Amino acid sequence: MQDLPLAETEELRTVVVKLLRYDDSLFRVYSKEGLIFGVYIAYWSPGKSSYYDAGMHTPDTCWINSGWTRNSRSSNVVEALTDAQRLKPAEIGMFSKDSTSLHVAFWHLVGGEVNTYPQFGFHEGWRGFWERLPNYVRDVIRHPFDRQKEQFFIRLTSNRPLDHIWSNPDLQTVIDRLSVLGLTEKARP
Q: Which of 27, 33, 96, 186 is least enclosed by beta carbons within 10 angstroms?
């Protein structure tokens, strides 16, 4: 296990903190016998950031604007972990840059509920503003008066396809610990 900074240089870390405006974050990487998986968590206290602002910083936007390519993408994927527990619906994809490919699952949780937006690698500046405007309007309609819920952005990454490693005991331990943040729900009988 190794805790890593969110960016490679101090200058980039400053930019990330200023852009995301979270209260706390964690980026931890686990490796064992060739399997590598990472956990990134950002936390916003109630009222700290709009749901829209926190929810737009996903691999679909941030990674693509940083030179990554989205190779595959699925929305609202539910993965059963055990007979009694399952993950909340996730956004899942595979992204690559240079010689690195990462399989990714991520969630934006608002008050413990999944909050998603259609995203396709928005541009920066005015063009990006107009591309994101329908999502902003959708957010205002979804949460017209309630802006006081805590938020988590949780991202899991792996060098192997996620559907091949969900049952890995080490990943299961991490997911069990993340369940207190609202990542899992009890399976329906």
A: 33
